[in-house]
Amino acid sequence: MIPGIASRRRFSDLSEQEILALAISSEEDDARIYRTYADQLKQAYPASAALFEAMAAEEDTHRRWLIERHRTRFGEVIPLIRRDHVAGFYARRPVWLMQNLGLERIRAEAEAMEREAADFYTRAAARTTDAETRKLLGDLAAAESRHEAKAGDLAEEYLGTGARGEEDRAAHRQFILTWVQPGLAGLMDGSVSTLAPIFATAFATHDPRTTLLVGLAASVGAGISMGFTEAAHDDGVLSGRGSPVKRGLASGLMTAAGGLGHALPYLISDFWTATALAMAVVFVELWAIAWIQNRYMETPFLRAAFQVVLGGALVFASGVLIGGG
Fold this sequence. Notes:
- 77% of the residues lie in helices and 0% in strands.
- It contains twelve helices and no strands.
- The longest helix has 33 residues, at 161-193.
């Protein structure tokens, strides 16, 4: 392996043998990535998994063509050179980052891979003087450029309208279960449950600094509690709600955000100005909750608004009464 950034080769300094070796290793990597996608998707999205298996098979074919050309020109020994050995060359995501990509993001990543590969073969063809090698690299550039259309053909074969629609609906459902529901529960809890302690403190002390400290403690504490509770009570295996870590992050962060929204206005030293701004933020938070319920949970907007605003108003009033009593 070529160590260190300083020791990377410039693409313009590679020999024709090294360019072929780089192309071979790149095709191996891309086929491996497509098979990783296929393995990742095979349980939830079998049609997409079959698509990526077919794309991996195409990359295997390209690799065999390149190896045969290298054998003809340079013999059996292929130099070890990879993308990360070449300065400024495009890089692929590490496998541990690919494991958390959603279905649409994976499809977009695959399209980007084909565009980058086409650009590489175009540059590589311009660097070679051997007619047969130049023809092969040019053909591969054209093949990669057409791969988006080819992927479309494969998608038609493996992802017919019904299969793709069903997979997209499944991905949307998973997004709601993993991110939207925990995040919405957190936002509701953080926005509503912190109203009473924050505004009780505000009207009891008329001190913005004390109110800010209580608001920060209530918001951060609630966020940590909600995040751990969401992550710990369901591992997602039986319920199908997805990664507990993702759900815990969504719930915890949104809980903290919901409370901080009407705590941070008390950074303003004037009590009534800070309180008026905090009330305005509460109004925005409650309507945001109603919008999310309508948008993702298909709750009629007026019903969602009535429920959220009524609940928030009752908690707010209790805080004011307790603090002003």
